[in-house]
């Protein structure tokens, strides 16, 4: 394997979207979905006066 010098290392351009970024976006969307679901359930229980 060839070692790169500093000039070659500075010319490396990475991708715009990484797997970690996609994973964190999906996890955030899932969290918002679950938050909406629990909020909707709480509102429905409050409106129908059915509490556990």
Task: Map the helices and strands.
Blueprint lengths: L5 H5 L8 H30 L4
Order of helices and strands: HH
Category from helices, strands and their pairing: mainly alpha
**What distance separates the N and C termini?**
65 Å
Work out the number of β strands: 0
- Please report the number of helical segments: 2
Mean pLDDT: 90
Oligomer: single chain
The biggest sheet amounts to: none
Radius of gyration over C-alpha positions, nearest whole angstrom: 24 Å
Strand residue content: under 5%
The coarse silhouette is rod-shaped
Uncertain segments: none
Helix content: 55-70%
Question: What attributes does this structure have?
Answer:
52 residues
Q: Would you kindly provide a brief summary of this structure?
A:
By secondary structure, the protein is mainly alpha-helical. The protein has helices spanning 6-10, 19-48.
């Amino acid at each position: 394997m060839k070692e790169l010098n500093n000039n070659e290392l500075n010319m490396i351009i990475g991708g715009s979207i990484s797997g970690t970024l996609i994973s964190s976006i999906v996890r955030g969307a899932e969290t918002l979905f679950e938050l909406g679901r629990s909020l909707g359930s709480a509102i429905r229980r409050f409106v129908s006066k059915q509490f556990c």
